[in-house]
Structure formats: C-alpha cells, structure tokens
Amino acid sequence: MRRLPGAEKLTATLAEAVGSQRRLLGNAGSMLGATVITSLLGVAFWWLAARDFSADAVGVAAAAVGAMTLLGFLATLGLGTLLMGELPRRDSGHRSMINAASAITAATGVLLGLAFAVLAPLLISNLAPLNDSWIAIGSFAAGVGLTALAFVLDQAMIGLLQGGLQMRRNAAFALIKLIVLVPIALLVADAGAAWIYSAWAAGIAASMVVLSRFYMRRGEDPLRPDFAPLMALRLSAASHHAFNLALQTPALALPVLVVGLVSAAANASFYIAWMIAGLLVMVPVSLGTVLYPIGSRDPEQMKHGLRLSLRISFAFGLVANLILVVAAAPMLEVFGTGYADEGAPALHILALGVFPLAFKTLYVSVRRVRRTLGPALPVVWGGTALELLGAVLGAELGGGLTGIAWGWLAAVCVEGLVMGGDVVRAVRSPASEAVAAGAADRPAETRIPD
C-alpha cells in the first residue's frame, strides 16, 4: 500500500500529542489525587484538633503550619522548580543532583525555622507558644526543614513524571500525621499548639520512606550529592525562587495575617475555609505544574496542554462553586457550629478565586517553559502585594473574615485579567513560535547538548 507524503511524520506527531496529553493528565491526576487524599485526611486531622484542643491552640497551630510551609518554600531556593525543568532533559545523574538539592534545602529550612520560632513571637504576641520551650522551637525548626525537603523531592518526582511516587508519599504523610495526633488528643491534657504542629512534622519525616524505592534502583546514577550542576544553574534557580516566593507567599501568609488582623480563634475558621478553597485551586495548579516539565521536554505540546487545562479548570470550577452553594455550611459544621457561622461566607467568596487563578497558574507555566521569568517578576510580585493589601484593607474596613476574603478575591481578579492575556496569546500562537521562544529565551547556562 502506497503511503501518502508526510503521513508517517503526521502519525508520529499525532501519537506524540496524544502521549503528551496522557502524561499531562496522568501526572496531574496523581498530583490532584495526592491533594484530595491529603485534604480529606487533613480535614480529619483538623477536625480532631478542633474537637480535642482549644480554639486558640488550633488557631496558633494553623498559623504555625502555614509559617512552616512558607518558610519551607523559602528554603527550597528555587531548586525544586529547577529540577522539574532540568531532570527531563538529562539522561543520567538524577539522584546525585536531587540529593545535592535536598541537602541544601533541608539545612536552610532548619536555620530559617529556628530564627522564626525565636523572633516571630516578639512581633506577633499570639505566636508566643512557638518559643514556649526548646522542644517547641526544635519541633518547629525540624518541621520547616522537613517541609523544604518534601517540596524538593515532590517536585523532582513530577519532573521525572513519577507522579505516582509523589502521590504515595503525600498519602503516607496525611495518614501518619493523623495517626500521631490521635494518642496526643487522648492522652495529653491541655495540649498546646506545639503538639499539633509536631504531629504534622512527624508525618512528613515518616513519609520519606515511600521514596526508598526510587533510591534503591540500581544503575549508573550515583547517590553521592553532586553540587556542580546546581552551581552552574544558580541564576536560573534564583529566578525560579523569586517567582515561587511571589506565588506562594499570599497562600501561606494569609492564615498568619488573619491571626494578627483578627484573632487566633477566628483563624481556626478561616484556615479550614482556606484549605477547602485551596483544594479547588489544585486542579489548575496540578495541570499547570505538569505542563512545565512536558513543555520543557517538547514545547510544541504546550499549546494543546494549555487549551485542555483551561477547559478542565473552568468546568471544574463552575461545578465546584455550584455544589458549595448548598454544601459549604454543612462541610464546616463538621468542625463545629462556630466554624460554619464564621467560615461559610468566607468560603463562598474564596472559592470564586479558582477562575482567575487558573489563568495565573498557566501564565506561570508559559513563562517557565519560555524561560522569560525576568520580565514576569514585577507582574507576579505586584500580584502578591495586591493580594496581601486587599486582605488588609478588607479587614480594616470592618469586614472581618468576609472582608479579608473579598479583598483577596478582588486582587486575584485583577491578576487574572493582567496575566490571562499571555495565556490566551500562547493558546492562539503557532506551535513553532512557542518552540522558537523556548529556545531563544533559554539562558546559555541552562542549555544542555542534545
């Protein structure tokens, strides 16, 4: 049978496109699955805390966990995101590069945790339990170091398109921290916030065992940390780090901000609502995150992935918001009547953020793949400042938790309008243009011979 000219090339291109979308959906599904599991078990964790600990202890612990996560992101120094883009382009040296990044971030996290636990209570009196004792300080510092380590390892697994390992580690973390909290709630009288965030840190530590399968694989990939590639790529890592801080600061700082603007007890309700809203946003976040390694490997597939991600994100956001119209209050009542009274109105508002944040997360992916982070830094940092300012203004105008939610939503809508233009242009642009942009904008230090 005679083949048509170009038929083989067309078939190969279509096969690659289908395979790319399967990898996108498969690994994004693993990330989302990990989020669903950790969120459901996280709900059980905070439900148990709300039932057996004081509202003040839960509020401080929620702020401490938020601070641990924020400082953990800070301690990654952009290395986790760097690994996501670089590991798919390397044939060997994966484990040695990951181990070097892990050592740097874990050590940095412990130092940042120690400094925060000692100094933060001097600025925010409600955080005084963080330095009640050396055990409380040490537990918080260890938690920050472990959080930083977990971020780097999870991002490395996504970069290698090993989403299943990342999902299993997060599932183990969510289950173990709940198991650790149960005997504390039953046996420790008047347990404070330190017990809660220590259980959280213990869950992270124990979950690392899941990744032993990755490290036990034999081959020519050495285990000894190799710091040389990281040093060569330090400028790229710094750019990613500046980007990451801008993206994560509002999400992780708001619970800490609520403690200072309202109260620790009010933050208990806000944190639960914030956690549920964050689950909705994880759909576009998961898709956008996996688009980065896929686009780094083959920029031609970026356009198709963006279109698919937008459709899924908006369809899911619409369905989820409709469900929350009737389900928000009953979901929060699981934690107590006070949680529903204060948190339900805020949750309705926060959930609407899934739509503008879909554009924001995909904007980030486009910029990462095209290696144009520098021009985008003022945009994302401006959005960060706007989100925090919106929350502060909402609280100052007397709106309490609802005012904070409205202020934050107004800010992310502005971000969506500004950043959405780049996403729409990327969807409409020819694939060849995306390839050219990715090659031209890549810094010389990140180029690796084919």
Task: Please write out the topology.
Elements: H1 7-52, H2 55-75, H3 79-86, H4 94-123, H5 134-159, H6 163-187, H7 193-207, H8 212-216, H9 228-232, H10 234-261, H11 264-297, H12 302-333, H13 337-351, H14 354-370, H15 373-396, H16 400-428, H17 431-440
Helix pairs in contact: 1-6, 1-11, 2-4, 2-5, 2-7, 2-10, 2-11, 3-5, 4-5, 5-6, 5-7, 6-7, 10-11, 10-15, 11-12, 11-13, 11-14, 12-13, 12-14, 12-16, 13-16, 14-16, 15-16
Notes on the structure:
The two termini are 35 Å apart. Helices cover 82% and strands 0% of the residues. It has one domain (16-443). It has helices at residues 7-52, 55-75, 79-86, 94-123, 134-159, 163-187, 193-207, 212-216, 228-232, 234-261, 264-297, 302-333, 337-351, 354-370, 373-396, 400-428, 431-440. By secondary structure, the protein is mostly helical. It is built from 17 helices and no strands. The model is unreliable at 7-18 and 431-450 (pLDDT under 50). The protein is globular, with a radius of gyration of 22 Å. Helix 2 packs across helix 5 and helix 10 runs antiparallel to helix 11. The longest helix has 46 residues, at 7-52.
